[in-house]
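Handoff note, outgoing to incoming analyst
You'll be picking up this chain. Sequence as last confirmed:
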Amino acid sequence: MADKAPGYVTWNKEIDNGEFKRKPRTFRDFVSAKEGSKFLAEPNRYHLYISHACPWANRTVIVRNLKGLEDVISCDVVDFLLNPETGWSFEKSHPGSTGDSVNGAKLLREVYFKAQPDYQGSFTVPVLWDKKLNTIVNNESSEIIRMLNSEFNAFAKHPELDLYPEPLRSAIDETNAWVYDFINNGVYRCGFAKAQQPYETACKALFENLDKVEQILSQNRYLTGDQLTEADIRLWTTAIRFDAVYNTHFKCNVRRLIDYPNLWAWTRELYAMPELQRTIDFFHIKHHYYESHTSINPFRIVPIGPVIDYSVGEPRVLAPPKRARS
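Most recent structure output, in case you need it:
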């Protein structure tokens, strides 16, 4: 096993002219329910490695919970601290960190090297691991949630739940695209910018698109209509972290999420769902961002606040859709 990964990428190495540019993920195989597939959907074959802090990893465990796959796909949680040189660890000294129950690794990088000894990319979460073939299937969250949604229905407690329904796929894909560019990744483009202009460009685009979400949610229960879809899950994992971290740590401070009546109500409504709420560990979230990003917060001081009440308030009263003028 390699001792060091010369190509290991940290957030500090994904900067181009002061602008943060996220690199694509490397492992892109797909679990399928189709008989004869290399990665066949089977119970107790696959394992998720996640971080409670990471919004991308958070997506996968939410879909796992919503589909009722907790007894089908096992899961381990890394420690909240992300070392810029060695990456995620399986240190168990903090509550919520589980260690590695499958490979016995000390560091997540060991899992990557087990799958590919000459690997030179970044050691990211989530990771979908195949316990049968001893390899990584996929480390791209958007693809993992699609697998969990559709390929394990034979073993799911809630096979009827479809987060990517055929009639809404075009709307979901369109929404995912701008939410990812300007909100999910937008907060990171604000926080990791190393020049004023890239920061301001990202921040203005972020709040223009949060304004867009607010308008949508003033008329719709969910992002693409009256049905919960993956588009909501993908936005929510950013929204639930926004006031606690991104507003201050990443300088996304034009407005708070609580200043958006409909977006804030939608965030709390989803938080009230047990399948989502039990995936959120604010200790891991806050300590990860404030202690890991020493280029932003060199003294690793973790703020006490803000004090946020996520309990559901008054139900939203949706405005009627605007009619086109005749």
